[in-house]
Amino acid sequence: MTCKVNSVFYHVSAVLVTYNPDLETLFTAIQAISKQVSNILIVDNASLNFSENWLEGFKDQMPAKLYFLHQKENLGIAAAQNIGIEKALTLGADFVWLLDQDSIPSSSMVAELLAVMTCAQSKQETFPVAAVGPAIVDRCSGKNYYFMTDRDGFPHKWTPSKVIQELPMFQEVTVLVASGTLISIEAIKYIGGMRSNYFINHVDTEWCLRAKAMGYKLLGVPTSKLEHRFGDTTKQVWIFGYKEVIYHSPLRNYYDIRNTLLMLRDTPMTWIWKAHFIGRFMRLAYFLVFAEERWLRLRYMTLGMLHGVMRISGRLETKTNHCSMLPVSSLEKYKCGKLIKS
Question: pLDDT by residue for the chain (342 residues), tens digit each?
Fold first, then answer.
């Protein structure tokens, strides 16, 4: 499928969430982002090594206007994204482009994603497109990660066929990784924002499944690549064949389990997809056997299971094992295009 890039100017705001970032990587990311958007909204989760003063040295050199939205505490990825999206709304953005602090986009990514968004909408007027996203290249292993799709009702990892010489312009998907994803503001008003009290893990998965349940389409762009770091480290292990295993901290194991259980209740999905997410718990057994800090992981996994069953959400306070509720964005109160008053 071919389509010319729409010549209409769109206001795109980049929402870049930071938390104790590697400053060299962050500078490279800001440089790459700045040439493609109207403004960059840096939402900082109380970093210790990073402040607005760091930006002053090159703020005037960037093509896009930089906004620094400092938070007094770590609110997590979901609440930070909502804060950035809210600011984008006040600036009149048509689209928001979500990015993590360690993600480096290609120089033409926004143009590529916008072309697919506008092209798909014009060719397929029967469905609205909520978001489009790139394929991910893991910065540690160099491996390409493509898209999770639905094939005959079953979860399926889409990868390009080896017999195809040219990649398709886009591929309909079920889930997009948040970093690199371009989202329509109008879709956010209808679908709602991210769930702040998920804090981290499955924030993007839940939003994508909610969008799908509300009749929206999500599109992956195989030719568009984003350099992104998955986890703390990546290792090759043999589990009935060599596989890439992404290692996270023990605390992330807590959020993984808890938010999976919350998502199964919060978000409409088929029983097949529910079984898929429950089945992913099996991979956590690997970390209890082969990863470091096994007993700490077991403790956090058990706590995550307990909190998920009890529907406890928020930011886990590790000293007390209790969760602090996070501020709920007005975006989370949108339902079917209407602001629901509490």
Answer: 344 444 458 899 999 999 999 999 999 999 999 999 999 999 999 999 988 899 888 888 888 999 999 999 999 999 999 999 999 999 999 999 999 999 999 999 999 999 999 887 766 555 799 999 999 988 766 777 889 999 999 999 998 876 666 788 899 999 999 999 999 999 999 999 999 999 999 999 999 999 999 999 999 999 999 998 776 566 655 555 555 666 678 999 999 999 999 999 999 999 999 999 998 888 777 777 777 888 999 999 999 999 999 999 999 999 999 999 999 988 887 666 555 555
Q: CA 143, 144, 148, 149 torsion: positive or negative?
A: negative
Amino acid present at 82: N
Query: Domain extents for the chain?
Result: 12-230, 233-317
- Burial-class residue 151 by CB neighbours within 10 Å (0-12, 13-18, 19+): exposed
Q: What CATH fold (topology level) applies to the domain 12-230?
A: Spore Coat Polysaccharide Biosynthesis Protein SpsA; Chain A (3.90.550)
Using an 8 Å Cβ cutoff, are 180 and 110 in contact? no
